[in-house]
Write a structure and sequence with these properties.
Blueprint lengths: L9 H15 L4 E5 L2 H7 L11 E5 L6 E6 L3 H6 L1 H4 L3 E6 L5 H13 L8 E4 L5 H10 L4 E4 L1 H9 L3 H22 L8 H14 L4 E9 L19 E11 L2 E2 L2 E7 L13 H19 L7 H14 L11 E3 L6 E5 L12 E4 L2 E4 L3 E4 L2 E5 L4 E3 L8 E3 L2
Parallel strand pairs: 1-5, 3-4, 5-6, 10-18
Antiparallel strand pairs: 1-2, 2-3, 7-8, 8-9, 8-10, 11-12, 13-16, 14-15, 16-17
Helix pairs in contact: 5-6, 8-9, 10-11
Bound molecules: zinc ion (3 copies).
One zinc ion binds next to loops.
Length: 393
């Protein structure tokens, strides 16, 4: 099965929208380095090298958009959909050349003034400091700002093809969680289970496995536990938080399971009543927050819905992170579901809903789904069961 992709015609529209937003913000140009912004605008997922690759999007109407790339990257640069579609011209620089001078010339020609008079440019948020300092050298009077100021609104609202990729990734991750929860787990190390998860993420259709948290017993109280040599025992929970990418778009699911160690000969160890009580509160909080998703609701409100349920049950101090994060070409991106974020949800926004409760030294739990803000309410992409799964063996 070939990986689905964003239709190549889409990039011209994204570039036009980005140029329009940058012009409205009073910028002379957007300068986009290797990373998710470049993938979004040009369909080019380049290697992050010490040699600069930069998409120059001048705002003056009719000016050429240029992808500047090192000569040795010419082939993949010219093959990206924005270039093959004719929206973007590709210009390469030689090993002995100063690419900053080339970029300054392109920007100044497009703006119609000498490089020393270029007034305002925005750079992609992840641009290397060394590249930014180089740009500041060749554009000495320019005011620099972050491209997220103009790109975040475009990238936050996913189109149907992006949602399709996110859904495919979510469904693949669901299958991995269900396979792992079918056991056996007792007697294995966290690292061994993590290896199985990495393999399964790819086997189920991801291009890449990105992360694989397996946090057993007391480790389940540490949200970003790194799976290690701890041996999984009967009678404890495991927090499993995993994800990968399909066509550049990420999955991210968490399920907490209880390992009973049941065998044909014995019933195993049932979930501890304290754990069941904690899990029940968490399950209610996660469902309430997901159900509250609809256009017009502020991100901070979704966070409050989850937090209020958890606090009312007395676990407020044990929910030690935000409720969620946006997801797309980056595993964590806007919008963040956190107190203080007044950003209002709009159709197409994609984010996690992942409250957790952590009793340090004892155990913890988290439930995470990826949710799209639909026209009238939530569209939950993950479908693996949220009732506590009790694992035999
Ligand atoms: Zn996390
Ligand atoms: Zn996660
Ligand atoms: Zn997450």
């Amino acid at each position: 099965m070939t990986a689905p992709a964003i239709p190549s015609g889409r990039f011209a529209g994204r570039l036009a929208a980005a140029r329009g937003a940058a012009a409205a913000a009073g910028l002379d140009a957007l300068l986009v380095g290797v990373g998710a912004d470049l993938q979004y605008l040009a369909g080019y997922s380049a290697h992050p090298l010490e040699r600069i690759t930069l998409l120059v999007v001048p705002t003056r109407p009719g000016s050429a958009m240029t992808l500047v790339a090192p000569r040795l990257e010419a082939t993949p640069a010219r093959a990206c959909p924005a270039a093959t579609g004719g929206t973007v011209a590709v210009t390469t620089w030689e090993e002995t050349q100063d690419p900053m001078e080339l970029i300054a010339r392109l920007v100044s020609e497009a703006v119609g003034c000498p490089p020393s008079d270029v007034g305002a440019v925005a750079v992609s948020d992840g641009l290397r400091a060394a590249f930014l300092l180089g740009l500041q050298r060749v554009l000495p009077s320019a005011r620099f700002s972050l491209a997220s100021g103009v790109l975040r609104d475009l990238r936050m609202r996913k189109d149907d093809d992006e949602v399709t990729l996110l859904r495919r990734a979510a469904q693949a991750a669901d299958r991995v969680v269900l396979a792992v929860a079918s056991g056996p787990l007792v007697g294995r190390t966290e690292a061994d289970v993590a290896r199985e998860i990495r393999d399964r993420l790819v086997d189920e259709g991801h291009d890449l496995a990105s992360f694989w948290i397996v946090a057993s017993g007391p480790n389940s109280a540490s949200p970003h536990h790194d799976p290690g040599e701890r041996v999984i025992c009967a009678g404890e929970p495991i927090v499993i938080d995993i994800g990968g990418t399909i066509g550049g778009y990420g999955s991210d699911i968490t399920r907490t399971v209880w390992v009973s160690g049941a065998t044909d000969a014995g019933a195993g160890i049932a979930p501890h009543p304290d754990f069941l009580a904690l899990y029940d509160v968490l399950h209610t909080a996660q469902a309430a927050a997901a159900a509250a998703v609809r256009p017009g609701v502020a991100c901070e409100r979704i966070d409050a819905v989850a937090r209020d349920v958890i606090a009312a049950a007395g676990y407020g101090e044990r929910f030690i992170h935000r409720t969620g994060h946006g997801i797309g070409l980056e595993g964590h991106e806007d919008p963040y579901v956190v107190a203080g974020n007044t950003e209002v949800l709009a159709p197409g926004m994609a984010f996690s809903i992942e409250p957790g409760i952590y009793l340090e030294g004892r155990f913890g739990a988290r439930i995470e789904d990826i949710v799209i803000c639909g026209d009238h309410g939530p569209v939950v992409l993950n479908q693996a069961p949220r009732d506590l799964m009790v694992v035999r063996g």
